[in-house]
Amino acid sequence: MTTEAATRRMPGAPCWVSLLANSLSATQEFYGALFGWEFRPGPQHFGPYARAFLDGREVAGVGELAPDRHLPVSWTTYLSSDDADVTAEQIRCCGGTVGVGPLDADDDAGRMAIGSDPQGAIFGIWQGRSMMGTAITGEPGTAVWNELVTQDTESVGPFYEHVFGFEAEPAASADLDYLTLQLKGQAVAGIHGVGNALPRDRGSHWMTYFAVSDTDAASRRVTELGGRVLQPPRDSAHGRLATVADSEGAVFTILQQH
Questions:
Q1: Which residues form the signal peptide (predicted)?
Q2: 189-222: b or e for each residue (b if 16 or more CB lie within 10 Å)?
Q3: Most distant CA pair in the chain, distance
Q4: 185 plus 119 within the same structural domain
Q5: Cα torsion at 253, 207, 236, 14 (round to 10°)?
Q6: Are residues 150 and 108 in the same domain?
Q7: Residue 66's pLDDT is what?
Q8: What span, in angstroms and rounded, lies between the C-alpha atoms of 31 and 58?
């Protein structure tokens, strides 16, 4: 489920994950203790923001919500774009919504937008300039997979195919409503249709998977740090995984790969 650096730069491929939290300092403390991340400021265009580094390489971003913005605390998957303005127009033309941007991040880092698909799942668009996105993936403490969790793949799959040029590969099992999204033959993301199991409090959403060396130990650590285990460790075709929430309630999945 890992992707090579060149693949992540392809238009449409997930290239960055970013979290908006209520307390930047508390969030840095949580993820620093869980994943070993170190933080550096910037870009600051949208308010307090820090980039997370692992072994000196950029892996994620964490921003602080303005006190008057009562938005859910959640991870956002950013998809790469050669032209954020063109991609934003394609989103609108295909039934999605653009809620923020496109606009420039400061220091010429890049151009971004925040959009949502026809089912309401929020995602970001990133046109990198000086900052291209995640420098490393697949290693413990880094994003390893991004997956859209929605009611069914049929209602939203064509949107992502048309806007981002994905080739969708259906799951081999008729019992599983799943599309693997591919670019030039490389699997870069997935869409999981879960029907009535879709969380009512979240609706359709993109899920970020972070690699860990030991899912059971990482789950215990999440609890020690003030987070919660929402779905306990379990085995899957790709490894041992658990769905957890951080100390402010942002949900993500941890995965110990085979």
A1: none
A2: bbbbbeeeebeeeeebbbbbbbbbeebeebbebb
A3: 49
A4: no
A5: -110
A6: no
A7: 84
A8: 14
CA distance 195 to 199: 10
- Which residues, in sequence order, are bridge partners of residue 12? none
Place of tokens 């209602």: 155
CA dihedral for 47, 128, 52, 148, sign (positive or negative): positive
Please tell me the predicted confidence (pLDDT) of residue 252.
98
Packed helices 215-224 and 24-35: angle between N→C axes, nearest 10 degrees: 150
pLDDT at position 69: 75
Low-confidence ranges of the chain (pLDDT < 50): 2-4
User: 54 to each of 37, 40, 61, 185, 256, how far by Cα in Å?
Assistant: 5, 11, 12, 29, 18
pLDDT computed for residue 6 by the predictor: 52
Nearest to 193 by CA among 116, 119, 115, 91: 119
Nearest to 240 by CA among 208, 206, 217: 217
Instruction: Give 149: exposed, middle or buried? Use CB within 10 Å, 0-12, 13-18, 19+.
Output: buried
Cα 204 from Cα 214, distance rounded (Å): 28
| Claim to verify: residue 212 and residue 147 sit in the same structural domain | yes
Q: Does the predicted model carry a pTM greater than 0.85?
A: yes
Domain that holds residue 198: 143-257
- What per-residue confidence (pLDDT) applies to 3? 47
Tokens of 85: 């303005």
pLDDT at 126: 94
183 in the same domain as 96: no
Q: What is the pLDDT of residue 209?
A: 98
Determine how many CB atoms are found less than 10 A away from the CB of residue 54: 18
Looking up residue 186, the CATH number of its domain turns out to be 3.10.180.10
